[in-house]
Amino acid sequence: MIRVLTFTIVLALTSATAATASAQARVPSSRTEIELSFAPLVRRVAPAVVNVYTRRVEQVETSPFFNDPFFRQFFGDQFPFGQPRERIARSLGSGVIVRPDGIIVTNNHVIEGATQIVVALADRREFEAKVIAADPRVDIAILRIDAQNETLPYLEFHNSDDLEVGDLVVAIGNPFGVGQTVTQGIVSALGRTGIGEAAAQSFIQTDAAINPGNSGGALVTLDGRLAGINTAIFSRTGGSVGIGFAIPSNLVESTLASALAGKGIRRPWLGANGESVTHEIAQSLGLARPAGVLVESVYPGGPADRAGLQTGDVVLAVNGREVDDPQGLKFRIATGKLGGSATLDIYRKGQRLSLRLPLTEAPESPPRDLTQIAGNNPLSGATVVNLSPAVAEEFGIEDPLAGVIVTDVAANSTASRLRIRTGDIIVKINNRDVKNVRELQRLLRGADQWALVLRRGDQLLSFSVRA
User: Fold this and answer.
1) 109 tagged catalytic
2) Inter-CA distances, 193 with 202, 368, 397, Å
3) Checking phi first, is residue 369 left (phi over 0); if not, alpha (psi -120 to 50) or beta?
4) Mean per-residue pLDDT for 238-267?
5) Contact (Cβ atoms closer than 8 angstroms) between residue 271 and residue 344
6) 377 close to 252: Cβ distance less than 8 angstroms
7) Residue of 37, 32, 13, 8 whose CA lies nearest to 24
8) Which of 188, 215, 240, 380 is catalytic?
9) Is residue 135 among the annotated active site residues?
10) 249 tagged catalytic
11) Domains defined for the chain, CATH in brackets
């Protein structure tokens, strides 16, 4: 049996390559075409996919009562079997070299909290990696290794907007730590949202087998370019059932460009919030079918406000690409270029209009005023900042109202023992609204008991503490 593979033939099976841009995708027309092999493609792209090993120190509580404030009130900090101990946790994932000087893209959840990151190349050489930038909002992290001026194999980006359902793709990663593994499938769906907690979503769905350890690996098109970063699976057993998800390359590429610019990861901001248009909403607005995002609020002076977007408008598309939910809308805005603009197609009172949206980042107003709370009070050990649109974007908060948010909690601090968490918004202290960090500090001083109200997600939590 003769196996034949030339890039001219393979590219005829896809619709996404410059060399055959005018050709139409078609089914195989001969036995020779059916007997194609992916081996030449894999030989070319596999060296750019790496294994990522992480090491981190975790605090392990030896007693379930250690952080119970009522228990500690009686026994204090000297309870012998309640002290936490440290253990070393190791995890593994995958990554993709995207520049020949050693720049690697992986998932944020692969390296989050790691004290040491080791990257193993396909030829088994190992390098310690440093984190350039990480963005948990979209689950992307950018790493760098020092390859001593060696030019490393890397993958170029494919335009993920050119993908079509049915396109052939190859997934490469390190599932279960068994070593580099290649699986093949098709693009099963596009624009998947509601997967995980990422703020801006429009995942590529594939039936190429993706398993634990594949996170951060490559989803590659048959032209040898990176279509996405494998990030999640849907499974009731922990193994692949043919439903895997990848972050589109366009979002990965825009994140990389922002990170390498040296000012952290910055993205365009819409400055408006909304909800998906349901069948009932579509009927009430006179839309022929459910489509788009109904605008519920517009931030005064923000990009959407300057573009003329109004409450009650329905955003149907961004730059000609349809959107059906808030996450998809945020994805389309997030992949834009800061300083440029985007075209919003909207529906308003029976008319279809186009608006020009300036692509600017969320303002940090008021300034953060980063402060670690100290002293004899329930928030001692918590680091807090003023809530602004920029901070709200970082934490995935829909409405950037005034207030104070916790950004870190020191281990074994009073705040930690009271289960204060990163992301908690401090709403009230002793029935007084907390509007900024300075007011928070004033309300904490000079009291011997505190009644706190915190917002955690969609919940309001209330509790009282004595000195």
Assistant:
1) yes
2) 5, 31, 17
3) left
4) 86
5) no
6) no
7) 13
8) 215
9) no
10) no
11) 7-37 (no CATH), 48-265 (2.40.10.120), 272-358 (2.30.42.10), 371-466 (2.30.42.10)
Q: For residue 113, which phi and psi values (nearest 5 degrees)?
A: 80, 5
Catalytic residue among 135, 139, 167, 223: 139
- The structure tokens 């005064």 sit at 300
pLDDT tens digits, 194-243: 776 666 678 999 998 888 888 899 999 999 999 999 988 776 666 667 78
Token pair belonging to 322: 């349809």
Checking if the pLDDT of 167 tops 60, the result is: yes
Give residue 345's identity as a one-letter amino acid code: D
User: For position 73, what pLDDT does the model report?
Assistant: 47
Contact 139, 196 (CB under 8 A): yes
Q: In angstroms, rounded to a whole number, what is the distance separating the alpha carbons of residues 412 and 94?
A: 33
For 80, residues 6+ apart whose C-beta sits below 8 A from its C-beta are none
Residue 187 has pLDDT above 50, yes or no: yes
In tens, the pLDDT along 307-324 reads 999 999 999 999 999 999
Q: List the catalytic residue out of 15, 91, 94, 109.
A: 109
399 CB neighbour count, 10 Å cutoff: 11
Q: What is the pLDDT of residue 35?
A: 64
Residue predicted with more confidence, 330 or 20: 330
